Amino acid sequence: MxxxxxxxxxxxxxxxxxxxxxxxxxxxxxxxxxQAAVLRVGDAVALRFDEVINGEIDIEEQKxxxxxxxTLPAPVVQMIARRRAExxxxxxxxxxxxxxxMNKQAPVRREEVSKQIAEAAKAIGIYGTVSAHSFRxxxxxxxxxxxxxxxxxxxxxxxxxxxxxxxxxxxxxxxAVSRVINEMDL
Length: 186
What we know:
Helix content is 56%, strand content 6%. It is built from ten helices and three strands. The chain has helices at residues 9-21, 25-37, 41-46, 74-86, 97-101, 110-123, 133-146, 151-158, 163-169, 172-182, and strands at 52-53, 56-60, 67-71. This is Tyrosine-type recombinase/integrase.
């Protein structure tokens, strides 16, 4: 299986803009919270309105069983408030229109999120394996860069058990080698 591309912040934003422009705001909203809260797609789509309290979430990660508690940034809080106002009877923040029309209280499927994100990436010229997971990586990478390359902080937010996993996950070694090669005086 190919590893998901690590998007930069501009690429992630461009994909969300394309999704919104093509009437796929649900997928754009899922990708926003994945990036901002550095969530896995399963945790993002499973998020319920009752798990968001005063702009904070405290969830148990599906993959690891570890707790993840954090304060959400203002754009995410606003997006959740907008979705709550639009869909006051939904349990899940990211319930699909199809599930709503079938009166089924279930979130959008992870596979659908990845499929739509891959379609958007291709449409705007981003190639490689771009999936929903690329947004979690984008969030982790942005956090790493904005914290002054604090690998321990990135490791904590990603809930990794060691720094080696975080370096591999964010392709930090590849990025460092590329940067040095590009700075060579040839």
